[in-house]
Sequence to fold (114 residues):
Amino acid sequence: MKRLPAAFYRSVSGREPVRIWLKSLGSDDRKAIGDDIRTVEFGWPVGMPICRPMGRGLFEVRSDLSGGRIARVLFAIVNEQAVLLHGFIKKTQKTPQSDLETTRRRLTDLKARI
Fold:
């Protein structure tokens, strides 16, 4: 049984940006990220190296991809669900500020509609 079911963030227009991003990736990358999200769903609370708190109610799912690439899916826990707010391929050591801002903006939007 899932301890923390995952759900995609959906904008007012009905767009699901994380789902769209995942579909743009290759099947091996989608599988790796999906496996890590599933680990969070069934094993919550999960710590490093799969999941890490980002502060201000945000968490990241950390996925290693082929070719030494790294993916992150940022989420928040809302109504006992892990709402997947933003996903990206990480290219630098530190999470880019623009990705954090996108995530926070989506979380603010989501909370305003609850």
